[in-house]
Write a structure and sequence with these properties.
Layout: H1 5-15, H2 21-37, H3 43-56, H4 64-78, H5 86-100, E1 112-113, H6 119-135, H7 138-153, E2 155-156, H8 157-172, H9 177-180, H10 188-205, H11 210-224, H12 234-242, H13 249-261, H14 275-285, H15 289-313, H16 317-333, H17 338-358, H18 369-382, H19 384-394, H20 406-421, H21 441-446, H22 452-464, H23 471-484, H24 491-508, H25 515-529, H26 557-560, H27 566-591, H28 594-605, H29 610-623
Helix pairs in contact: 2-3, 3-4, 3-5, 4-5, 5-6, 5-7, 6-7, 10-11, 11-13, 12-13, 13-15, 15-16, 15-17, 16-18, 17-20, 22-23, 22-24, 23-25, 23-27, 24-25, 24-28, 25-27, 27-29, 28-29
Length: 629
Amino acid sequence: GKGFAPYATYKTMIDAGVYSIDDLSGAIASAMASVQGFESDSIGLLDSLFSLASLCRLSSGKVQEELDLINETASRILNTSSRMSSKGKSRAVFALCTSIGELPGITSFVPNISSSIKKDQVSNVVEMLEETLMNGEVECTHASALALGVLCAMRNSSRATQQQKREKKSDRKNVDVNTIIQGKSGTIMEFVLQQVAKAHADILVQLTGTKRATKQLCILFEALEVVALPGSFSRVIETTLYSSAVVNTELTDASLKILYSQIESGRRRIGFDGRGFLDMSTRLTKLPTKDLTKLIGGKGVQQMMIAMPNLLFQLPTSAGEEVAKCLWGICRDLSNHQMIMSEFFIGIKTIFASAGKESKDKSKLSTSPALLRALQNFVANVLFDDFCKGATQSSKIDASSSSSSYETSISVYLECLDMISASAITTEITGIQSDISYDNVLVMASCAPFSSKHTRRVETWIARQNVRDECFNLRVLLMSSLALAPQCRNEIEMKESIVNLFDIMLVAGINNTLCIELIAAKIAYWWDSRNMNDMSAAAHPIQRVSTMSSFLISSNLCFEVQSLPNKEISAIFELFISDLPGKLALLCQTWKISDDISNRATRLCKDAAGNKKMCLQRIIQLLDGGGGE
């Protein structure tokens, strides 16, 4: 029976993101090798055969060679001259059956034909089963009859899905508000619900007064937001949303508002529960992004993100983790909508913050530690690579285009990571330990506050990159340098960083790297953050320092210049570089590293060109005691 286990194991692991398609391909190759490795037919061969047949159905790639091997092996075993036992031959029959689709009661209760199976493959299997049914042993004929019955029960998965959609659509038209909820006789609630029923019916059948009914239902839904309604009322909201009469956003907004008002934490219900609202909210998160935006629009998706904390608070761990992943997928698909992704991270931050408050009062704990741990791991590690790639791509935009939501959400995402690192639940942020590349350097640079070691690693990687004729890479590195520049924690770290960058220039060169730009940005931020302009001129009479770049300094400069073209961003760094000699010379004198920097600058100046050569010459002149102004 070991052959039954691999399919269920790999399907679960792939759905959970633990195994990849490469892992599945390896398993299929191993099963195929195992089948081919048997020198004679035995019961053990059947386990390998069944395993190979079931795993092939999980693969989206070409598995024709594997299917041919399954048919060839099964045909040999079922041959009347085979010495395989009747039990083994019966297993071969079901291996053939599982190569076509799912077996009811073993892998699924809804048998579907695999989407990759061709008509001739089904015909070949049916022929073999019919032959066994007519000429096989008694036990084999019984198995063949069962297998043919299973094949008859199988359906094309796409047709089954279409049928389910038709049934759901039909159900949505048969909703009677009066059978779902009724108010007590003679009360205002009874009148309100009667009006809801009438307006709802008018919208579903699209009478001539639909516009009036739409306006009326919006007002009635708003009035009911403060009332705790039974979960079955979610059917009224759902049918309203899906009604083709809803052509404007007013009724959609009203429907979503009453839906999300019903899942607010702490809402008391007596004699009924609100699980219907949770179920509907969960179903909406699992819709394909295209269908979801068509149904509720971008503003509706934003409302969904705002309601996320209340939804996740009330879901079990596995369901909550799945919903969070679905919501992130929606954010990623709609990255051109400014606030959707930010609202997602704000919601995650709300969950993390509330968990911290709950830990002080165990009686009010509403977030399970397992769900909190799962969300922390998802935000810190699973989501990290996706977010990095999206943020980097968003930096490659035209100044005339609308900016991406990544620029407004990186700071909120970093706050989430900071809360994770400070949480009582230990979750290692492994994302920032991964290899640095152009796909993730922007977020990696933004994560510099988490570790001085990480800061140095990102700084070194940026300084070593050759940016000749790479416009996009140049832009990414400049943006990353602006994100990294404010992160030095103390004087010792800053001094070591400057010396390290000069050493990198000696090895990697100066003209095709951004070492000077990175040094200039770091010095500009350090100068401004330490109020160096207030230093006594009497104590440092070497020169009067230019501070024009101080007008640009802000902790969020990386995102404030996001929509500027490359030329303007380069101009900002040129301003940093023009201010660099005076500031660096004064700081080197304070840190007592003037000779070290002067020596390195002299060696670099031989190969430098253009503005970088002029900058180095000015640095050498000031460090050697000349050039007072």
